[in-house]
Specification:
The structure holds 2 protein chains of 2 kinds. By secondary structure, chain A is an alpha+beta fold. Chain A is 24% helix and 32% strand. Chain B has 8 helices and 8 strands. Chain B starts with a helix and ends with a strand. The chains are: A alpha+beta, B alpha/beta. Chains A and B meet through loops of A and strand 3 of B.
Chain lengths: 117, 226
């Protein structure tokens, strides 16, 4: 199998942080917060996101939440797709602040699963 | 026997069907158009694939991507594609790769079909295919429209007059929204043209291009690029 190549990460990204911020797809204006070797316990994440905003719907692998102006799809694998609206391109700095807020909430609610699984 | 019976209703001669079965198709992207391209090729009896995609299925894929289901959400697209292929043709030989870029290997690929959604990938794929002297099937869908052609020697940059500045290129958005019929039609035409190329039937060759717009009065038309 050929070695998998993924998105090029921003080189200035803090190597000690628990996440990356990437522009996932040319079809969307969204940004992705990708947790490094961390997964999300979806049950506990619901409480975490409820503390930050509202949870619009959830299943065992995905949850849709609204935090401030952002709509966030949260995936059990540790990905979070963040979108403002169809036309606005989110600013990386703002997403970084949002990511820190989410991480804190996930940790508080014991929704982080550590280690590769 | 079972395998042959599965594809016996394809309207090909035996040598043509064998050619399709033996050909190695490179497929970039397994999303809107890519998923349908793979499905079409599998149903036509293709047996060898190299699949390029690094992404996982997500909620916003459901409106148009064949392989996006509640069971496959948050799973690698290549993984899902292999599982799908095995259900149709377990004998299919599939190599999966991550993201396609200019360093990707096209060794063993006889026809490269592009179901990606951005200009940079398309340009790099076309350039690499030209260098390797293999046909590059351009396939693109946007909203309710799309276009398909085969680059077989013709220069991609001449055809699309793309700026050489890579930074400017990354601002190009091919598709903000796409409806499923557009993705599936673009994919079906792309596969039919690839097969025509392979079995030496007439195909749309760049700069000639086949366009369609499902919302317009005249749905299909041909025009020259460049």
């Amino acid at each position: 199998m050929t070695k998998q190549r993924y998105h090029k990460l921003d080189p200035c990204q803090d190597q000690y942080s628990d996440y990356y911020i990437i522009e996932p797809c040319t079809t969307s204006n969204g940004m992705e917060i990708k947790l490094k070797d961390l997964k999300i316990n979806m049950e506990n994440a619901e409480a975490a996101f409820s503390s930050l905003g509202t949870v619009a719907g959830s299943s065992s692998v995905v949850m849709l939440a609204k935090v401030g102006k952002y709509t966030i799809s949260v995936y059990a694998s540790g990905r979070m797709m963040v979108k403002e609206d169809k036309t606005t391109k989110s600013k990386k700095k703002e997403i970084d602040i949002l990511a820190q807020k989410i991480l804190r909430a996930l940790e508080t609610h014991d929704a982080i699963i550590r280690g590769k699984q | 026997m079972l395998h042959d019976e599965k594809f016996s209703r394809n309207s090909f001669t035996k040598p043509q069907q064998t050619k399709i079965k033996k050909c190695t198709f490179g497929l970039i992207g397994l999303g809107g158009t890519g998923g349908f391209i793979l499905e079409n090729l599998l149903r036509l009896g293709a047996g060898n694939f190299v699949l390029f995609d690094h992404d996982q299925f997500e909620l916003s894929n459901f409106n148009r991507q064949l392989l996006a289901t509640d069971d496959t959400i948050d799973t690698l697209k290549t993984e899902v594609a292999v599982a799908r292929a095995n259900k149709i043709n377990p004998r299919a030989n599939i190599k999966t790769c991550g993201m396609f870029d200019k360093k990707s290997s096209l060794n063993s690929i006889k026809i490269l079909i592009d179901g990606s959604d951005n200009v940079i990938t398309k340009m790099e794929a076309a350039t690499l295919a030209r260098k390797k002297k293999i046909p590059y099937v351009f396939c693109s869908a946007n909203r309710a429209s799309g276009m398909v052609t085969i680059f077989d020697g013709y220069n991609f940059n001449t055809a699309f007059q793309v700026p050489s500045d890579r930074k400017k290129l990354s601002d190009y958005k091919l598709c903000s929204s796409i409806i499923c019929p557009a993705a599936s039609i673009a994919a079906s035409i792309a596969v039919s043209q690839a097969i025509n190329y392979l079995i030496k039937k007439p195909y749309v060759k760049a700069p000639d291009t086949l366009f369609f717009d499902l919302f317009s009065k005249k749905i299909f038309w041909r025009a020259k690029l460049g």
